[in-house]
Amino acid sequence: MDGADADIARQEDETVRLVATALKSATVVVDPDLPKEMQDALARSGGKLVPYQGPVPAVPTPTSRIHGCAVLAWLFLGLAILSGAVGNLAFAFVMLTVAAASFPLALANRPSGEEIAAAQVPVTQHRRYVVPSTDIDAEHWELWERAVDARNRIAGASVVSAGQIDSVQVAEVLPERLWDIAERLARLAEVRARHREILGDVTPDDPDVAPIVSRQRQAQELVLSDVLRRVGDLENFADLVDAADKAARKESIVRELHALDDTHADLLAGIGDTAADAELAHRLADDATAVIEQAGQAIKQANDAALSLALPNGGDSDDA
Fold first, then answer.
1. Residues 178 and 81 in one domain
2. Are residues 240 and 91 located together in one domain of the fold?
3. Does one domain contain both 293 and 189?
4. What are the distances in angstroms from CA 13 to CA 34, 168, 177, 241, 303?
5. What's the whole-model pTM score?
6. How far is it, in rounded angstroms, from Cα 137 to Cα 185?
7. What SS3 class is residue 60?
8. Which of 27, 62, 217, 267 is 20 to 30 Å from 116 at the Cα level?
9. Domain membership flag for residue 11
10. Same domain, 237 and 299
11. DSSP conformational letter for 126
12. Distance between the two ends of the chain, CA-based, in angstroms?
């Protein structure tokens, strides 16, 4: 294997490993189109993440190590000046020496561009990630859990990790599909919260506001129906992968059992060669072939479904 092939193999191994990692319902979902370094920075941001809805704070200036060192340097310099002014030249010299050493230390501790970008990424990439526990309405939480469960069933399947189903294709599809669902639920929660805020103490069925509220709620229901369809597609694919996984396990069992046919043939040889013996051996072989073909068909169906879930031209034509 040459260098290029080795790099591709490592990328595929990493892709499969990431897919096989089970997600929790509260795990932050990041737009897969973001560069990996930004995704990693968001994963490390923890409590600094900004809610999907609501005002976006100003881009923060990261607290850096240089600040403390610079304060000490100026403090020592001030002491040196004061000591010199009162005639304590020895102490002034010591303070001046310490101050001179502190300035290079302060410069050496300046934050790098990468550190500054990582500290700012929760704000600069706002709405490119969703925090399910705060950004998805409680009444839609069960729907979100269904999506995560389907994703985990697919990612954890043996036929995916073994490469019998195109694991690289799955690794590309799953983050996109999960992001689609999470983003739509977050946007839906945002407009619903804005509705409540605007209405205040006015009831939605008030004659003066009811027509526009009704129209906007119909739009919300259409979005929710689209999310339900997407979750259903993911669950259908998970069902096919489950079936392929089960069929593959049966195939493995049948192959191992089939390997014992010779041993059983030796056992039968000790009691004579009869028509019944020959029929039994033939039937065992037929049973094994049928199960193997069934497993192959199930795996093919799951692979076809994986291709149908792929996003053509980077997105669905029916995006809400």
1. no
2. no
3. yes
4. 21, 9, 21, 20, 19
5. 0.67
6. 8
7. coil
8. 27
9. no
10. yes
11. T
12. 45
- Which stretches within the chain are classed as H helix? 3-20, 36-45, 65-85, 89-108, 113-124, 132-135, 141-155, 158-161, 167-199, 210-258, 261-269, 275-309
59 within a domain of the structure (yes/no): no
- Tell the residue number behind the tokens 């706002």, with chain if given: 126
> CA-to-CA distance for 149 and 143, rounded, in angstroms?
10
Helix (H) or strand (E) holding 29: strand 29-30
Residue 202: exposure state from Cβ atoms within 10 A (0-12, 13-18, ≥19)? exposed
pLDDT at residue 40, rounded to an integer? 84
Rounded CA separation 236/309 (Å): 10
Instruction: From 44, 75, 110, give the residue that closes a domain.
Output: 110
Residue from 152, 147, 165 nearest 245 by CA: 165
What was the pLDDT predicted at 145? 95
Domain that residue 142 falls in: 19-34+128-314
Same domain, yes or no: 192 and 260: yes
Reported as a single tens digit per residue, the pLDDT across 22-52 is 788 888 999 999 988 888 888 887 678 888 8
Parts of the chain with a pLDDT under 50 = 1-16, 18, 64-66, 107, 277, 280-281, 284, 311-315, 317-320
Question: Which sign, positive or negative, has the C-alpha torsion 119, 121, 126, 127?
Answer: negative
Same domain? 185 vs 83? no
Q: Let me know: does 247 contact 294? Beta carbons within 8 Å.
A: yes
Tokens of 132: 């399910």
Give the pLDDT confidence score for residue 5 in this predicted structure: 41
Looking at the structure, tell me whether residues 98 and 156 fall in a common domain. Answer: no
Say what the pLDDT of residue 272 is.
Answer: 54
The DSSP result for 248-307, as a single string, is HHHHHHHHHHHTTHHHHHHHHHTT---HHHHHHHHHHHHHHHHHHHHHHHHHHHHHHHHH
Residues 6+ apart with CB under 8 A from 240: 298, 301, 302, 305
Domain-located, residue 28: yes
**Is residue 239 a part of any domain in this protein?**
yes
